[in-house]
Structure formats: C-alpha cells, structure tokens
C-alpha cells in the first residue's frame, strides 16, 4: 500500500507543462510587460519557467499597436509535447493566425461594436444642441 500511495502522490505533484503569460521582471510601476513562457502548472505566475517563447506588451505604442512576438517553432514543439494553453495565450495565438480565433474574441468584438454604435447614436442626439450653442457664440 505504501507503493501505491507514493505513486498517487507522484502523479498528483507531477503536474504538466502549460504555455502562459508571466509578468516580466521589470521594476516599472504601471507598465506591464509579459513573457510568453512554457512552465510547470504548479509554479507561481512569475516563478521559474522552462523556456521563454515570446513577449507581449499590452500598452499601445505611438502607433496604437500592442506588440507581440512569438517563437512559433518552439510553440509547435511544446504543443506537440502535450503542453496546455491558457486562454489569454490562445487568444493571442488566434489573433496572430496560428490558431483559429477564440470564440470569445469574436463575441467581445461584436459587443464592443454594438456599444460604440449605441454611444454614437446617443451622442448624435446631443450634438445638434451643442452645435447650435457654438454657432451662436
């Protein structure tokens, strides 16, 4: 019975490899920057990882672009080895064309488009009044 319990504990603590976002070690406040890494699922988010597979800068640059870089060869290797993807990484890979788009990405875009249209129509009713005031001045 001792052998069986130790085998179960080994399987439980073994875990698996996961490809996820890890906050980079930059010491800047309010400036997130993420590494896309292959790591053991039992490790902390910012803990030790096996290999860095890319980077993600979520803040837009002067051209309003969020920069992402991937090492697709290594990502293919880790997926072939059975690595799991987290949802944020799956979304980024879908947007890059590596995978099909994540269904929530499409749904979220449709919701934002509808909200923008509602805000535009609501803003359109107030604009004529403001335009009349500006014309009088």
Helix content: 40-55%
Average pLDDT, to the nearest integer?
A: 80
The tally of strands reads 5
Largest sheet: 5 strands, mixed
Number of helices: 4
- Computed Rg: 23 Å
Q: Helix-strand pattern, N to C? A: HEEEEHEHH
Sheet with the most strands: spatial strand order: 4-3-2-1-5
Distance between the termini: 90 Å
Strand coverage percent: 15-25%
Overall shape: it is globular
User: Are there runs of 5+ residues with pLDDT below 50, and where?
Assistant: 1-10
Structural features, described:
With 137 residues, the protein is an alpha+beta fold. Helix content is 48%, strand content 20%. The protein has four helices and five strands. The protein has helices at 2-14, 72-80, 87-96, 103-136, and strands spanning 17-23, 34-40, 51-57, 67-70, 84-85. Strands 4-3-2-1-5 form a five-stranded mixed β-sheet. It is globular and about 70 Å long.
Helix and strand topology:
Layout: H1 2-14, E1 17-23, E2 34-40, E3 51-57, E4 67-70, H2 72-80, E5 84-85, H3 87-96, H4 103-136
Parallel strand pairs: 1-5
Antiparallel strand pairs: 1-2, 2-3, 3-4
């Amino acid at each position: 019975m001792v052998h069986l319990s130790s085998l179960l504990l080994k399987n439980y603590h073994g875990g698996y490899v996961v490809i996820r976002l890890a906050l980079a070690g930059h010491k800047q406040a309010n400036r997130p920057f993420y590494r896309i890494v292959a790591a053991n699922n039992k490790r902390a988010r910012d803990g030790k990882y096996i290999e860095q597979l890319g980077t993600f800068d979520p803040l837009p640059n002067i051209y309003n672009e969020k920069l992402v870089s991937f090492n697709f060869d290594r990502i293919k290797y880790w997926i072939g080895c059975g690595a799991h993807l987290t949802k944020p990484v799956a979304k980024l890979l879908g947007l890059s064309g590596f995978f099909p788009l994540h269904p929530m990405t499409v749904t979220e875009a449709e919701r934002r488009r509808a909200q923008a249209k509602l805000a535009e129509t609501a803003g359109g009713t107030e604009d004529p009044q403001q335009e009349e005031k500006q014309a009088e001045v």
